[in-house]
Each structure stands twice: as C-alpha cells, then as structure tokens.
Write a structure and sequence with these properties.
CATH architecture of the largest domain in chain B: Orthogonal Bundle
Order of helices and strands of chain B: HHHHHHHH
CATH class of the largest domain in chain A: Alpha Beta
Order of helices and strands of chain A: HEHEHEHEHEHEEHHEHHEEHHHHHHHH
Largest sheet of chain A: 8 strands, mixed
Low-confidence stretches of chain B: 223-229
CATH class of the largest domain in chain B: Mainly Alpha
Oligomer: heterodimer
Number of helices of chain A: 18
Low-confidence stretches of chain A: 422-444
Number of strands of chain A: 10
CATH topology of the largest domain in chain A: Spore Coat Polysaccharide Biosynthesis Protein SpsA, Chain A
Number of strands of chain B: 0
Shape of chain A: globular
C-alpha cells in the first residue's frame, strides 16, 4: 500500500502541528460559495457542539481558489451557541482553511481533506457541499454517529427529492450501482458523506488522483470504492436537499460523461466483484424518514424528445457501433411514434446501458466520443420517464424507479455475457477489517 | 554499291546487334531480378503474415487498441495482413529499383537514383495522407456528436465540412511534399480556405447578427435564461 503524502501548504502544515490530533473532521470543499458557505459552517459548528461536545473536532475548508469571500467567511463565521440551547461549548472547534493542490475539481479538494484526516489520525470524517441551503446541525449527527458509535465505515446520504430531480441518479447511477455491487444505496452520488478515518486513508492510497476522479467523478468513486473495499455501509435520512442552483448553461453531456465514465471505469476495475454479485440487499437507514413538500420541477419534454430524435437521425451510425443490433433495431422501431411521444421501456434502457458499458470496455471508439454520443439517448429515456410518471405521486414514481432497478438486476447476466468471454477468476475482496458482515459487507 | 549497302545498312545493324548483345545480359539480369523480387516479395509478405498470425500479433494489437484505431479510421484489414502487404510492396519497389540499375545504362541509372532519392518524399506524403485520413475521421465524429448535443440541425453538414477540410489540407500537404505543382497547390489552397473563412464570416455577420449578439451577451453578461428552458436537475 502506498504511503505517499499529499502536499499541503506551509501554513496548513504549521496548523496541523498545533492541533496534533482530532477525533472528528468535517470537510467543506468550496469554490466561490460566499453566498452559502457561512450557513454551512454554522450548521457544522452547531452540529458538532450539540451532538459531539466532548470530542476534539476540526473543520477543514479545502478551497479551489475562490475569487470571492468564501475563505474569509469560513474563517470569520461566529456562532452564538446560546441560541441553540448549548450553554457551554466543551471543546474548541479548530478550523483549517487551505487551498488544494492538483487538478482543479472536487476530487482534489477531497484529497486534501483525506490527507489532513490522516495526519490528525481522525476516527470519523464527514464532507458536506458548500452550496447547501437546507443543511441543519442534525446532518452532522446523522453522518457521523453511525461511524462513531455503530461501527460503520461509510454513510451515504438519503434525501427527499422531487420525482424529476436527480434524473442521472434515478435512471443510471442508483440502478446500475445497485445491480452491480448488490447494495441498495439510493443516493450514490449524493455529495454529502460520512466515513471512517481508516477509509479516508484507504481512499488516499488509491492511485486515482491524476484521473477524472480528481475532477468530478469523486462521489460515485467513493461509494463504489467503499463497497469494493469491504467497508460496512449504511445510509442516513437527511430530509430535503436544497442547494444553490447550478450553472444553467452547464453542459449536460459533460455531466453525463463524468458520471457514466466513472461508473464504467469502476466496472473495469472491479470486474471480479460485480460479475459474481447476485441480487441486491437493502442498506440500513438511520434517521427518521418523513414527508416534506419539495420544490416543483418544470420539464420541457418536447425539447428532450426533439433532441433524442435528432440523435436517432444523425448519430445512427455511431450508435450502431456502440449498441447491439437488436438494441438499435428496437430504437428505430420507436421512431415511428408520433409527436412528442417517446417511449424507451425499462428493458431497452437497461440494454442500452449494458451495451454502452461493454463498448466502453472493448474500446470500440474513443471513450469520450462514446459517452458523449449517449446524451440524446439519455434525454430520450428521461422524457420517457417523465411521460410515464406524469400525474403520479413521488411514492408512485419511486416504485417505477424500483421496477427499473429490478430490471437492471434481472438483465445482469446479459451484461456478464457481453462483457468478457474469458473464464472469471475467483475473487477475494480486499477487506478493510471486516470479514463477515451482516449489513452488506459480504460480496459473495 | 556494295560499299554503300555495307556502310549505310549493315554497319549500323551490326552495331545495333553488338549493342543488343551487350545489353541483353543486363536485360536478362533485370528480368531475373524482377522475377526474383516478385517471388521474394510474395514469399516475405506471405510468411511474415503467417508468422504474425501464428504468434498472435492481431490479438496483441487488439489488446493495445490498434485494431479499434484502424477500425475507427475505416481500415477493416487486420494488422497481420497490413504488415504483410506493406512488406510485399516495399520489396517490389526495392527490386524494381535494383532491376533498373542492373541495365547499367547511364540515363536509367540516373533515373533509378532519382527514384531512390524520391522515396523519402513518397513515404512522407503517404504518412501525411494516412494521418490526415485518421484525423479527419476522428474530428468529424467529434464535431458531429458535439453538434447534435448542441442541438444544431445541420450537424451532419458541419461534420462533413470538417472531414473534407482536413482531408483537402492533408492532400495539399502531400502534393507539396511530392513536389507536384507546389506553388499552385499552396496558392490554390490559400485562396480556397481564405475564401471559405471570409464567406463564413460575412454570412455570419449579415445573416446571424442577432445570434452573434445573443451569444456575446450570454458570454459577457450574466442574465437569467428565457422560460423555454426547463429547470431539470440531472445530477
């Protein structure tokens, strides 16, 4: 196992010398989040003071060179604990505000946080996005307590979201991760996570920091790597997630390339694990689930269908290279559907994803081209989902997603067959420290 | 009269016959070299191809991603056959030049030397053409995907233009390397390319003023988007 150190700035090194060690670390990666970061720092500080008063804790802000007041706000935000019925703060919360080195992106920010966790020998860590508006002190408890007291290694978030919010998660990341690795983690690319200090060191020792993971594929990588390493995984119910609106001009295909690319690359890395994994198992959920009204999401189905049809006309030859003949002919049959109607049924979508994963693995064409060429297909599927769930409640829409997940699992033998003709070798997971785990650590 | 016939007809004929007799062995040697070259080329090509197949060269190329790269460039021949063919034609070219040299005639020797000196240019031009072909295929596909994802209706036209643009550029560079009508090619290419760029700029300026304005406004001034765009969060 590698023991290479991530470079830290001289002031950060000096600060680490002063602090010495800590039991808990909460990381906030940021980049120009002056509007919201103060609220996030307050929630973290109150959460630590209220739920972990006797523990030595550190708040780390890993910043990507913000040009606004982000870092200054993190450094100067003060909290009046009396307003939160905290009469006396038992332990001082140390703050480290540091820039990160390496490729610009959330992954590099996390790397610095992991390195600080290693130096401080922390027991439990959590990371939260700096653009959150709905974070409350309870999130800190929910992300850290399963690690501090229940012996878990990784805590994934569980949010309440609108049925049309997080469509990449619903149609791709969740069903595929669940079918491949057998863990029903509802938000594998959520953004907020809790993890043990040991797992942080494991993350740090992986040689991925010069790849796409260092940019924005970090969320799915952390979840998959936690499962693959044999870590004990659970979820915590955090309620609704409201964050600052993302840049509306952000390119969808770039976003899709990041998530799909990370998922497919991880499939190559953990082939021996997923190819032997059977049906999925529920993952323990902490917290108190409740219903809450979520902001409505307006969807322009016509635009998505038009995009999909454009792809079907112009990208047909490229799709023929990526997808199986049967998949393409079924897609062509759907072209006859009139108007804005678009139906890509679950089985066909699963077949598309599995064909694309196989084509990615076999390097049919440059991977960037392959992933980007799937954007119209994804939009077609999203339009199809929106049309199929119009008028349904969030719970009913969730049942549709569950049905899609079961289709992903049911059709997994198709993926295994297409993926690799060679005989598969017996697999031994690189367990962190748990050998047999009732809560999903066993992959066999 | 006899002297005349002897001087005017027989002597030249004798001289010709003598010269033919002198050259004949060289011609024969040329023929043998050509035949030998042909056989050697076939044998080398055949055996190299078989050998490569036996040692799993195609499989190795497949693992290295070379087969996929060839396929991406539209080349459907497998790498073993490709190497076999290359060796065959290389031996043929070398044998032809050697065969010409065997004639031992000053002009032909000079021609053979010129041909030999021309080979590097020929190789460079071939490499340029091949690189241009692969690059044009790669670029046109990238442009097509980007144009479709951007929702541009003439996506295929734009992709075709990028493909032909690169192939014409590669063709012009190859001709320049071969020394064929160098100035005409360079000037012609410059005029054509400059004309296309100028025409495009004028067409965009006159026909798409609003589009250009909107584009610059979106780039330089942050303002909310129109209501036609949905607020779907994909992540």
């Amino acid at each position: 196992m590698s023991t290479s150190f991530t470079p830290l700035t001289a002031p950060t090194e000096a600060r680490l010398q002063d602090i010495g060690s800590a039991e808990i670390l909460v990381g906030i990666p940021s980049y120009n989040n002056a509007d919201t970061v103060g609220h996030v720092v307050q929630a973290v500080s109150v959460g630590l003071a209220k739920y972990f008063p006797g523990h030595r804790a550190v708040l780390v802000n890993s910043d990507g060179g913000s040009s606004d007041e982000t870092t200054a706000i993190v450094a100067r935000t003060t909290i009046d604990f009396q307003h939160f019925f905290i009469a006396e703060q038992q332990s001082i919360l140390h703050r480290i505000v540091t820039p990160y080195h390496g490729i610009p992106g959330k992954g590099s920010a996390f790397r610095t946080i992991f390195e600080i966790a290693r130096r401080l020998k922390t027991r439990a860590c959590a990371v939260v996005d700096a653009d959150l508006r709905s974070i409350s002190p309870e999130w800190i408890e929910l992300l850290l307590r399963p690690i501090m007291e229940e012996g878990y290694d990784y805590v994934a978030p569980y949010y309440l979201r609108h049925k049309y919010d997080g469509t990449i998660t619903n149609s791709l990341a969740y069903p595929l991760t669940r079918a491949l690795y057998g863990q029903q983690i509802r938000q594998p690319i959520g953004g907020e996570f809790g993890f043990s200090g040991e797992l942080a060191v494991h993350y740090l020792d992986q040689h991925v920091w010069d790849s796409e993971v260092a940019r924005f594929g970090i969320d799915i990588w952390m979840t998959t790597e936690a499962i693959a390493s044999g870590a004990r995984v659970c979820q915590s119910f955090l309620g609704a997630k409201i964050h600052n609106p993302k840049d509306p001009s952000a390119d969808l295909s770039t976003m899709l390339v990041q998530v799909m690319g990370a998922l497919f690359a991880l499939m190559e890395q953990h082939e021996d694990l997923w190819s032997r994994q059977g049906t999925s198992q529920p993952v323990p959920l902490f917290g108190f689930p409740y219903e809450v009204g979520v902001e409505p999401v307006h969807v322009n189905v016509e635009r998505m269908v038009s995009h999909y049809r454009h792809g079907l006309t112009d990208l047909g030859p490229i799709w023929q290279q990526i997808l199986a003949t049967d998949t393409v002919s079924r897609l062509r049959d759907l072209q006859g559907t009139a108007g804005t109607d678009c139906r890509i049924p679950d089985e066909l979508w699963v077949q598309i994803v599995y064909d694309a994963a196989t084509a990615y693995h076999k390097r049919i064409m440059p991977r960037d081209h392959l992933l980007k060429a799937l954007t119209p297909l994804y939009l077609g599927r999203t339009a199809s989902f929106v049309q199929a769930t119009q008028g349904l409640t969030s719970k009913e829409a969730e049942q549709k997603i569950e049905a899609l997940c079961r289709t992903f699992e049911h059709m997994k033998p198709y993926l295994v067959e297409c993926w690799q003709p060679r005989a598969l070798q017996p697999f031994t997971p690189a367990l962190l420290h748990h050998t047999t785990v009732a809560a999903g650590g066993d992959h066999e | 009269m006899n002297d005349f016939i002897s001087q005017a007809l027989l002597n030249p004929l004798q001289l010709l016959g003598h010269q033919l007799l002198t050259v004949l062995p060289n011609v024969l040697a040329m023929g043998i070299i050509l035949l030998g070259g042909l056989l050697t080329a076939w044998a080398f090509g055949f055996f190299v191809e078989r050998l490569l197949r036996m040692i799993g060269f195609d499989h190795l190329c497949d693992r290295l991603g070379l087969n996929a790269a060839l396929l991406r460039g539209g080349v459907k021949t497998d790498p073993s056959r490709l190497v076999g063919h290359s060796i065959y034609w290389t031996v043929i070219v070398l044998a032809s030049i050697t065969a010409l040299g065997a004639l031992n005639l000053a002009p032909i020797n000079q021609f053979a030397h010129s041909l030999l000196a021309y080979v590097p240019h020929l190789v460079t031009a071939t490499v340029i053409l091949l690189a241009g072909y692969f690059l044009s295929n790669f670029t046109s596909r990238a442009v097509l995907i980007a144009a479709v994802n951007a929702g541009l209706t003439p996506a295929r036209l734009i992709a075709s233009c990028s493909r032909w643009g690169i192939q014409v550029l590669a063709g012009a560079m190859a001709l320049e390397q071969l020394g064929i009508a160098q100035h005409i090619v360079v000037v012609g290419f410059g005029i054509t390319w400059g004309g296309i760029v100028l025409a495009g700029a004028i067409a965009f300026g006159l026909g798409a003023t609003d589009l250009a304005k909107g584009l610059l406004e979106r780039r330089l001034v942050a303002r909310p988007r129109s209501g036609t765009v949905d607020d779907l969060h994909h992540w």
